[in-house]
Amino acid sequence: MKRSLLTVSLVSLIPMLTTSQPALSSEIHIGAAYSADQLRGARIGYRTEAKNYDWLDWAGSPTLAFEGALNQWQNSNDTADNIFAMTLSPIVSWQLTESSQPLFIEAGIGGSYIDQTHIGNRRLSTRFQFEDRIGLSWQYNAESDARVSIQYTHYSNADIEQPNDGLDFFSIYWVLPL
User: Fold this and answer.
1) Which of 13, 43, 61, 127 falls between 20 and 30 A from 112, CA-CA?
2) How many secondary structure helices (H) and strands (E) does the chain include?
3) In which element (H, E) is residue 114 found?
4) 20 has a pLDDT exceeding 80
5) According to its UniProt record, which residues of this chain constitute the active site (predicted)?
6) Cα gap 160→85, rounded to integer Å
7) What was the pLDDT predicted at 145?
8) pLDDT for 143
9) Distance separating alpha carbons of residues 156 and 53, to the nearest angstrom
10) Average pLDDT over residues 137-159
């Protein structure tokens, strides 16, 4: 069941990744995550073109993009104990430095659908989880807009149902423009 969910999810990303886009407008990322609860993870995702919107001027004029991703989390103590998750989240980003290799701060609150409601000693109760994140992203290559991003991400059902142990991850991503 888990493998078929992952296969269907990956196949559903193909149209997004192969759709013709303007140069450097969208991006993909791959990453790794670690949790103090002895969980590790992997992520692959797609982000739409980031745009400025006048209605966000009150927040310091960040850019807004939308991101979809597939995650796999694994119990480090029992490699058969896994969760697969599909996420969708709006991402706001503020450029912190004016240079050819700028630094950005990013934040987002979105939704996630998980295929199991427990991993290790963590009980999540519902298959729907909120995905809250904050991170720093550095554009290390001025010519290609490629970036490295480090993030803290929290998954929780916001006490919709108990128990709500939640999951916390520290992640690193390699971000490549399409």
Assistant:
1) 61
2) 1, 11
3) strand 103-114
4) no
5) 154, 156, 168
6) 18
7) 85
8) 85
9) 29
10) 93
CA distances to 26, 157, 172 from 74, rounded to whole Å, are: 29, 20, 16
Q: What pLDDT, on the 0 to 100 scale, is given for residue 144? A: 84
- Position 94 scores a pLDDT of 96
The predicted model scores a pTM of 0.82
Instruction: Supply φ then ψ for residue 79, to 5 degrees.
Output: -65, -10
Active-site annotation holds for 154: yes
Determine contact, residues 35/169, Cβ cutoff 8 Å. Answer: yes
Distance CA 114, CA 122 (A): 13
Q: For residue 46, give the CATH number of its domain.
A: 2.40.160.20
pLDDT in tens, 43-76: 999 999 999 999 999 988 899 999 999 999 999 9
Q: Where in the chain does DSSP place strands (E)? A: 27-35, 39-47, 51-52, 63-75, 78-95, 103-114, 118-119, 122-123, 128-138, 147-156, 167-177
In the predicted structure, residue 125 carries a pLDDT above the cut 90: yes
Phi/psi region, residue 121 (left: phi>0; alpha: psi -120 to 50; beta: rest), is: alpha
Overall domain count for the chain: 1
List 26, 93, 156, 171, catalytic entry:
156
HSE (CB half, 13 Å, CA atoms) of 170? 5
Give Rg (Cα) of the chain: 17
Q: Give catalytic status of residue 4 as yes or no.
A: no
Say whether 168 is catalytic: yes
